[in-house]
């Protein structure tokens, strides 16, 4: 091997190790970029429509978000807290109902015993200890989220300067291509965020209305979970369906079937009609690619990796198309 090759391999190894050690910092920074793009979309719209400066437009967007969040909290938070309290009381009842159903199946004796333990507070004590252990991680996550929001506001306050910094760090002959690549990544990520936000709000409202019409308890809490987990395609909607199904189990088996039909209709409508229609002009992710990205980043980084897997894949898809496909493969000749 030549000396340059060895130095290049060593540099790549050191860069890989450094990236792995700083993975949480990079994850927070990428999350800040995602939030900054979400803030930049309405900020840029205000700048064009009202001819405001960027600081004033961003301040107005943040003010509207705070006021909207306060109004929604005032309208929904009391009922939501009440339903969360009811959920804590219903967990032993759900476990008891599942235990009685499992007792009727001969090949599920261990599941029967495990569920029976959950019907008493003594059986819930190990779970409580685990929840206390998660409290420390939740505090750490809160700090990371606050740092992410602060970084996002700073990025959204002056994106042009950060864009010029990235372009300046690029070799001269590739700077024009880098500028175009950054614009495409921003457009794809902004389109994905706008489409998924509209999709999540639609799922939340339709699920809430459907559960209220079916007279299922904890309708608001279940709908909020279903709406939020829409941002985690494939895995999220399926996991979100478990909560309304468990609550409906306390009412009747018929109610379980009705809730299951409702969620199947909404989930398939969102996955195959609404989301593809909203994202058709910006990004089109294969379900297999999305699922593999979520599983991979979830294994490496846990829940934050699952939440940021899709926006990362959106950016990587643009990079692969422009750099690997157009820049390398299309020019590859034998």
Radius of gyration: 24 Å
Task: Briefly note the structural class of the backbone.
Answer: mainly alpha
Please estimate the helix content. over 70%
Shape: globular
Number of helices: 12
How would you sum up the major sheet?
none
Number of strands: 0
Query: What is the residue-averaged pLDDT?
Result: 81
Distance between the termini: 25 Å
Strand-residue proportion:
under 5%
Annotate the secondary structure layout:
Elements: H1 3-21, H2 23-50, H3 54-103, H4 109-117, H5 121-157, H6 159-168, H7 175-213, H8 219-228, H9 235-249, H10 253-279, H11 287-301, H12 303-326
Commentary on this structure:
With 334 residues, the protein is an all-alpha fold. The protein is 85% helix and 0% strand. Helix 7 runs antiparallel to helix 8. It is globular.
Question: Could you give a quick summary of the protein structure above?
Answer:
This protein is mostly helical and 334 residues long. Helix content is 85%, strand content 0%. It has helices at residues 3-21, 23-50, 54-103, 109-117, 121-157, 159-168, 175-213, 219-228, 235-249, 253-279, 287-301, 303-326.
């Amino acid at each position: 091997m030549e000396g340059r090759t060895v130095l290049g391999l060593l540099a790549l190894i050191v860069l890989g190790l450094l990236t792995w050690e700083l993975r949480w910092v990079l994850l927070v920074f990428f999350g800040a970029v995602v939030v900054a793009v979400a803030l930049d979309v309405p900020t840029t719209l205000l700048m064009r429509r009202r001819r405001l400066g960027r600081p004033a437009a961003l301040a107005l967007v943040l003010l509207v978000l705070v006021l909207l969040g306060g109004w929604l909290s005032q309208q929904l938070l009391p009922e939501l807290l009440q339903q969360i309290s009811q959920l804590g009381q219903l967990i032993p009842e759900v476990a008891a109902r599942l235990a009685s159903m499992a007792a009727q199946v001969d090949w599920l004796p261990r599941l029967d015993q495990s569920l029976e333990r959950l019907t008493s507070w003594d059986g819930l004590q190990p779970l409580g200890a685990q929840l206390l252990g998660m409290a420390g991680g939740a505090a750490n996550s809160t700090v990371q989220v606050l740092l992410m929001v602060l970084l996002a506001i700073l990025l959204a306050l002056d994106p042009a300067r950060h864009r010029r910094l990235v372009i300046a760090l690029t070799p001269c002959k590739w700077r024009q291509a880098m500028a175009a690549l950054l614009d495409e990544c921003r457009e794809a990520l902004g389109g994905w965020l706008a489409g998924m936000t509209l999709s999540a709000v639609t799922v939340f409202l339709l699920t809430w209305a459907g559960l209220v019409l079916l007279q299922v308890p904890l309708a608001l809490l279940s709908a909020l979970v279903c709406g939020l987990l829409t941002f985690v395609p494939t895995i999220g909607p399926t996991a979100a369906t478990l909560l309304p199904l468990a609550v409906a189990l306390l009412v009747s088996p018929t109610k379980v079937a009705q809730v299951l039909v409702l969620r199947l209709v909404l989930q398939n409508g969102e996955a195959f009609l609404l989301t593809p229609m909203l994202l058709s002009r910006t990004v089109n992710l294969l379900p297999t690619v999305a699922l593999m990205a979520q599983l991979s980043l979830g294994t490496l980084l846990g829940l934050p990796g699952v939440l940021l897997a899709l926006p990362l894949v959106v950016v990587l898809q643009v990079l692969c198309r422009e750099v690997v496909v157009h820049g390398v493969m299309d020019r590859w000749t034998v």
